[in-house]
């Protein structure tokens, strides 16, 4: 089965790269034996669409062209599928190797390994070890959420998505229609930044609160995608990194070390409790809830109320 599919993909890639004009589905079906053996038009269409997506996933740039008669054709121009000469010095190669190493235990491990192999094939010197210069470093970015991979692909392909999302202060999830911009990791948690169509505004979603499957939708984005720096600033603000005031909390003496690292002042209260002053920005209430009974918010009152609302929602299940 795997060999048959690999042969089919290779034949399709050769057809698309070898043609001087766009080939229709009908012409491609007549040119590839595996497609001729498809039992029905529906079976062929499903097989062709999967194969086309697989080739694009492998990096082949496939263009879709509509002729004067309205018939859609496909081709892969060689100039758009040819990399320029790659020249990397030892430090650049080490940086790329370190970046690939980050993903060794995540969902992008295969892609990262494949990228290094392609660099080797494109001229990366064999005597350059991408890992050697930084062998003592063991960077890791954990990715456990099932939503990560479909959202990553949707961000890359600029495809709208639909998913069920449970807010921290809500007992039940609600459906969201989103134009995904980018994925960012903050404090060990993954966030999606995008345009919420239902609310008509940019929003940030924590991946661990996405329930069920992420479903892709057809159509184009309705708003421009901001640059990467702007998206990162948006995620930082929603994740609580942008603070414009302070909050006072009580924290058990043997808990909450991430909070202690952010504290601007710490005072021992005795009886196993400390008082901390920490920066207060958007998302702090959601972060404090994660520490459960080890944290008590003293002020401001609005933060205390928000934390209580979230705790009640968690208690309701």
Describe it for me?
- By secondary structure, the chain is of the alpha+beta class.
- Helices cover 38% and strands 25% of the residues.
- The chain is built from 11 helices and 12 strands.
- It has helices spanning 2-18, 25-31, 33-36, 41-57, 90-102, 109-121, 148-157, 228-238, 257-262, 284-289, 301-316, and strands spanning 23-24, 63-66, 72-75, 161-165, 174-186, 189-196, 201-206, 210-216, 243-252, 265-270, 273-281, 295-299.
- Strands 7-6-5-4-8 form a 5-stranded antiparallel β-sheet.
- Strand 2 and strand 3 form a beta hairpin.
- Helix 1 packs across helix 4.
- The radius of gyration is 25 Å and the shape is elongated.
- The relative contact order is 0.07.
Sequence-ordered SSE layout with sheet pairings:
Elements: H1 2-18, E1 23-24, H2 25-31, H3 33-36, H4 41-57, E2 63-66, E3 72-75, H5 90-102, H6 109-121, H7 148-157, E4 161-165, E5 174-186, E6 189-196, E7 201-206, E8 210-216, H8 228-238, E9 243-252, H9 257-262, E10 265-270, E11 273-281, H10 284-289, E12 295-299, H11 301-316
Antiparallel strand pairs: 1-3, 2-3, 4-5, 4-8, 5-6, 6-7, 9-11, 9-12, 10-11
Helix pairs in contact: 1-4, 5-6
Share of residues in helices: 25-40%
User: In order across it, which strands form the biggest sheet?
Assistant: 7-6-5-4-8
Q: Structural class of the secondary structure composition?
A: alpha+beta
- Global Rg: 25 Å
Point out poorly predicted stretches.
133-137
Residue-averaged pLDDT, rounded? 79
How many DSSP-defined strands?
A: 12
Q: Give the overall silhouette.
A: elongated
What's the main sheet like? 5 strands, antiparallel
Order of helices and strands: HEHHHEEHHHEEEEEHEHEEHEH
Number of helices: 11
User: Beta-strand level of the residues, as a percent range?
Assistant: 15-25%
| Euclidean distance between termini CA atoms | 45 Å
